[in-house]
Structures are given as C-alpha cells and as structure tokens.
Design goal:
With 280 residues, the protein is of the alpha/beta class. It is built from seven helices and 14 strands. Strands 5-4-3-2-1-14 form a six-stranded mixed β-sheet, covered by helices on one side. It has a six-stranded mixed β-sheet with strand order 6-7-8-9-12-13, with helices on one face. Strands 10-11 form a two-stranded antiparallel sheet. Strand 3 and strand 4 form a beta hairpin. The chain is globular.
Length: 280
C-alpha cells in the first residue's frame, strides 16, 4: 500500500527585514495548506526575515524570533506541520541560517545551514556560524531530512540523511536568477536524488527584493529522478505534491547504490580528504 505525504510548497517573495509582512505571508501559506489538505507546508530559506546581505540581520533577529513564536502557535491551531526559514540565535548570541520544523504547536527540530555562501551577492559568513549536524526528524507521516540551499551542492549531506533513514529531503533555498541557473540547480537536485534513491522537494524564493531577482521554480523530484512538478518561475505560487514514500524502498530492492555502500570505501574517502587538506 502506498504511503503518501501531501506536502505544500509555499513559494513566496519575502521582503528583507519586513518581518510583519513575511509573517503574514507564512500564516497565509499555512491556512492555504490546511485548506488543500497538506500534511506539511514548506517555505523558502530565511523566509521569515528575508534573504540578502547587510546589517539588517543584526537589527531584526529578535523580531524574527518573536514572529516565529506566533507562527508556531498558528500552526498548532491549524494542526498542520511546517518548515520555516529564520535566523536562530544561540546562548552566546551567535546567529545561524536555520530551518525550524513545526508540529503539534511546538518546534520539533532545527537544522542550521552547513555550507554558508560567500561569493558575488552573498556575505553569509559575515553574519552566520555554520551548522555541523545533519539530523533527521520523525513526524507522523514519515522521517524527513532538511537541507538549506548550498548544502545540496555537496554530496555528503544528502548521503548522511539517507543513511540516517530520511524518507524525503526538503531543500529550502533563496537562489537568485542567473544565466543557466535553473539547469544547474536541476542537475544538482537530480544527482542527489539518483545517488541516494530518495525523493527531494526544492522550495525556492520568488520575486524581486533590493534589486535581486529570485527565480522561484520550486520543484518535486520523485525517488526515480523524475521531475514531477515545477512551480511558476519568478512569481509567488503554491501547490500540493503527493510524495510516494514507498517508491524509494521499492527501487532500492533492485538497485545497489544505497544497500551496498562499503565502510572501507567511506574511510578511504576520509583519508583522501585528509591528504587533500595538506595542499589546499
């Protein structure tokens, strides 16, 4: 019998630093998800505070944390799960580009972006510390993994989530438009799907803020690597995808790429990494 997860993809255009506006958009997305029967609604990277560079992060973090509490409460009232991007602050006052998993009126888990971006438009290392953990989370509808944007450009993170039993990976992103960018992302996401035989849902920001265009185009790839759904380019959009969580199990029975990973080879990769570290 198929085990289906109904995921709402909330492709929104967050305004940098306009927490109240972004909070309303996220709550609207939760209500839309509830209306359409979603088990979980997923929003883009830093959807609560907006994505960009500038010291606005330093001034708006407390407000974004207060807004997150209101969103958690609203999700609880609606009895719906959600993944929301925001800026987290640790006990020492350092910031992280984080995704919160909300469920049953509380924060069930957090994932902090591991691969911070620091080129061209991006200046994340100025504001954020990187995360170093790759957890998976139990939910009533299955075990899920979360990655944020650049995390999925590296094969190790998706691999770890697969080994830990994730049945689907949600990738939150705020990717600006550039020539060839859609094809680059499409290739990366498909490779992660095919390497691990696991469904992936990509949720990207849309619209224009501070002169930067976010291309949207959120997508769902089945465990077989098929692009099942693509949302609108550039503009806000919302859709529900039904993810077959049994497909990966069926495929892995006759495909060795996950089942026959060898510890000796993984150890050899680590040795090679240490060798490389001596000359870079």
């Amino acid at each position: 019998m198929d085990k289906l997860l109904k995921a709402g993809i909330a492709q929104i255009s967050s305004r940098l630093g306009d927490i109240e506006f972004n909070k309303k958009q996220i709550i609207n997305g939760l209500n839309l998800g509830k209306e359409k029967g979603a088990d979980i609604v997923v929003f883009p990277e830093l959807s609560l505070i907006g994505f960009g560079s500038g010291d606005i992060y330093l001034d708006k973090v407390e407000e974004n944390l207060e807004a997150l509490k209101a969103i958690v409460e609203e999700a609880g009232k609606l009895n719906i799960w959600a993944i929301v991007g925001y800026v987290e602050k640790d006990e020492r006052g350092f910031f992280y580009n984080t995704a919160a998993l909300l469920g049953e009126g509380e924060i069930k888990g957090k994932f902090a972006k591991t691969q911070l971006t620091n080129y061209r438009l991006f200046d994340e290392k100025r504001y954020f510390k990187p995360g170093s953990n790759l957890p998976v989370f139990n939910t009533p509808f299955g075990k899920i993994g979360i990655l944020i944007c650049e995390d999925v450009w590296f094969p190790e993170a998706s691999r770890a989530l697969t080994f830990r039993g994730a049945e689907v990976i949600f990738v939150l992103s705020a990717s600006p438009f550039d020539r060839g960018k859609i094809e680059i992302w499409d290739n990366f996401l498909k490779v992660r799907v095919l390497d691990n035989i696991i469904p992936v849902v990509f949720v990207n920001m849309s619209g224009i803020q501070n002169g930067v265009t976010y291309w949207g185009g959120s997508a769902y790839y089945s465990a077989s690597g098929k692009l099942v759904k693509r949302l609108k380019l550039l503009e806000d959009d919302f859709d529900i995808v039904q993810i077959d969580l049994e497909e990966a199990k069926r495929l892995r029975r006759r495909d060795i790429r996950v089942r026959e990973v060898r510890r000796e080879i993984l150890e050899e990769v680590l040795k090679a990494y240490e060798e490389m570290s001596k000359w870079i």
